[in-house]
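As a warm-up, study this chain.
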Amino acid sequence: MGTIFDCVLVVPQEGKLAGFARRFGIQVKICFLPMLHGVYTPYRGIATDAEQLRQSPAYQDVVSLIRETAPELVLTNTCVNVMPAVAAKSLQIPVIWKITEIIQENEHTNEAVQMIGRYSDWIIGISETAITPFKQAGMSEKLTVISPTCDPSLPAPDRWVHLRERKRKELGFKPSQICIGYISSFIYDAKGLKPFVDMALQLCETHPRCRFWIIGTSADKKYYDECVSRVKKSGYYRRFTFTPFEENVSLAYTAMDIVVIPSMVKEGFGMTALEGLYFAKPVIAFAQGGLKELLESVGSGAFLAPPGDTQALFTLATTLLNDPELASDTGWRNRTEAEKLYGIETYRAKLHTMVTQWLTRFPGWFPYIQPPNGPVYAWGEGQLRTVLVLEPATVRALLFPLNVIQTLPLSPLPPLAIGQLVHEATDTRSNGRTGRSRHQRLSHRSGVHDRTKRVTGTGRRKLKTRKKKRVRVGQPTARKRAPGKARRSRVRRRVSNRR
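Now compare it with the structure written out below.
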């Protein structure tokens, strides 16, 4: 996004994400906002509760932050992050709402979906599964699917062997042992650690070379302790490694041979699965939500188990363990397809397509646009008109990639002359924005007027700007010349200029 927009990240507190963003030159603001978790599990009156957020003390904080930052667009992330959308809409700023999870289905789901539709101008889903309820609600015209992509800085395949040996030595795994991995940021019942443990204990009986690495922080101590206790009582505890947090997740995948993601709920996408695919690992998961969509897209639908079916997980793992060539072929096919479908270039292309839709559907969002090292454009009569900027301070052009500009209709009409305008004081009363003059807001809404005049006898358009005559108070005005004298004077000046 940073190739098109100046991005400002708002986080609830300082942490790894804030530091990561700053290292890449992204401005970071701290503002704690309460979530409305009922959007994920809808209930009667959820829309009323969303509107009641205006009464929260935090609401004024986010309004002040938006006014201070003066964004052209506000992007709110996850379905439960409602307050930024409500605040931005109240300030008449367009809202892009990114849906990263699947809203649970019940009799009140449509109320939650309609509420999101009311406070958003565009909706991004991270999978087809995530946007299904919005399609069903008739919002297809403002939906885009942009699935996550892998970090381009992840180590390339030529480094994997070295990283694998280093990590497995640290874990105490022998070269002949097979590591089956489970990764989750936070572990609770929905993340399916219990089915993983049940599958693993069955494999301990049939495949003594298997080792199991479980990575994740306990978010439900009782649930987590039950899973660990089951392993301890089995007598196979020494075959399991429990790691609360792994700093370098790429090292984890290189050490694994099979990745299992037994999520008990419908995931919006499945980033862990995508990372496993990137590192050429066969991935096994329950067939639901975004995980099902992801594995089927790369040709690994055969490694999906019915949701909650531990025996099916065991059967699929056994198939891979008994056929190393199948496991290797599956892993490398996963990587090839994942790069093609979810690589950074595909991600960027989808982003540019979406922004192009914004430019054509909502030209008022971007009064002036410009390709790198190219002319400034403004919308006029449904097409882009070149702009002759006479006073640069009056125009704030947003840079767009050339491939985006090239897809837009260009007008054959002559350039628009912009500049030397009468500025008024910044007015934030109408929509809460700062940093934009009243004239700029008017042109933002209604387009830019053509200030060209035709000069008689030349056959060409000559750009002239209309200047208001200024009369100095207390001083005599200039004496008017007779028309003939004025004409002769101009002729003499032209002749003298040719000498």
